[in-house]
Amino acid sequence: MDWNFQSAGESAAALRAGEASSVELTEAAIAGIERDDGVINAICVSDFDRARAAARHADQELGRGENRPLLGIPVTVKESYNVAGMPTTWGMPQYRDFVPAEDAVQVSRLKAAGAVMLGKTNVPLGLQDIQSFNDIYGTTNNPWDHVRTSGGSSGGSAAALASGFGALSIGSDLAGSLRTPAHFCGVYAHKPTLGLAANRGMVPPSEPALPVDLDLAVVGPMARSARDLTLLLDVMAGPDPLTLGVAYHVTLPPPRHERLRDFRVLVLDEHPLIPTGSAVRAGVNRVADALVDGGARVERHSPLLPDLTEAATLYMQLLFSSSVARFPVEAYEQLRTRAAGLSTHDRSLDAARLRGMVCSHRDWIEVNNRRELHRHGWRQLFGEFDAVVCPITPTPAFPHDHNPDLLERRLNIDGVEHPYFDQLVWAGLATMSGLPATAIPAGRFSEGLPVGVQLIGPMFEDRTTLQLADLLEQQIGGFQAPT
């Protein structure tokens, strides 16, 4: 039996039945990494000695009849999470020797659930790219086409899963960093509702690991099946034990429906600010057809949908408002001068990003107030619908582009070039309002590359999109190993 491409649920069942041991699963995963990762470069820091020890311990526990959610399951962790005794660099060369003394809260939860950690997965410099490469660990390639990116910033995790290097991984998402790599590599990911999963210890090495409530950013699960996302989210969900966890426990509501035919779904494949490539449109339409075939109520338009142009503009301003906080004063003043020179009529996303970089606190409060209106609009929409299906980015995985000036990069959409960062508008649709979003594979439509779509749902009703993802996996199929 080749366990490397089995789901975590299948592996857990085999472990409980005595059909496999954690040592067997772990050794198979290590052998796969040693054989195949030379060309993928997904695992940037291995931890095989401790993984083997953890697997032996898990087998002892299984032999005593103990049962924890991830007991004996090999997993990986995004490099940006603190793991005691392992480097955490965020791809920044000045921190190549930084080794934290304490695990991130989510790493602690993985270990408490019995997971066997194989190592860390690669990221872009400072987690600030839609690709995964840096001067310390090099470039992570897409398992389907090595000249293309695996995505970012959780690109190493997505590539590891697609290559069979562990059954699960944990990543993070601020600008689609869970969903885009899943889309590019043909795996599953879930961006939880903002604040659902504690993020302490997923922090740049220059900063202390404090229980800070972040705006926009979340941590979340990645897997090769929808049910595995639910399994891992149950481990990750819950407040930080140092703060809200003192008083509260999380109990997520059940999914709104159990059957596909009971779901009410709004399907979007067009954005006013950027075209949708033909391959991605085909993926959205395949999912829409599967919903119709399964008896779901599917609509293509709704007057309840918050304005997509304003949503993208607000998202860019919020996203970039924190990006210059540590810029030198001279560089910040140059940005202020550039922003002051913008025409009041310039409503481009480039202008929104520049205005966000230099916005005052007063400006930020106004943007945040507009965000609250969008959140209210989503609440109204989810009174009529259970989920929204839409793209994650406009294209499948694109060729590596290491131009150091990110503003000079261009994204080719069916032969027409567009600003590189404009592709974030679809990811920002869920992120700006803090909504949960599940990325699922929709098939392969262009040059054999995977295409994914996202299922956006109501706040704190994460189980609804996860259930819909599971039902669609049964309807159209799910993960396929790269060929």
TrEMBL record:
GO CC annotation: endomembrane system
Enzyme's top EC category: hydrolase
InterPro entries (alphabetical): Amidase_CS (IPR020556), Amidase_dom (IPR023631), AS_sf (IPR036928), FAAH2 (IPR052739)
One Pfam family per UniProt: Amidase
Enzyme Commission number: 3.5.1.4
Keyword Hydrolase attributed: yes
Keywords: Hydrolase
UniProt-listed SUPFAM superfamilies: Amidase signature (AS) enzymes (SSF75304)
Coiled-coil ranges per UniProt: none
GO molecular function terms noted in the UniProt entry: amidase activity
Domain Amidase, first and last residues per copy: 24-466
Protein's name according to its UniProt entry: Amidase
Organism per entry: Streptomyces abyssalis
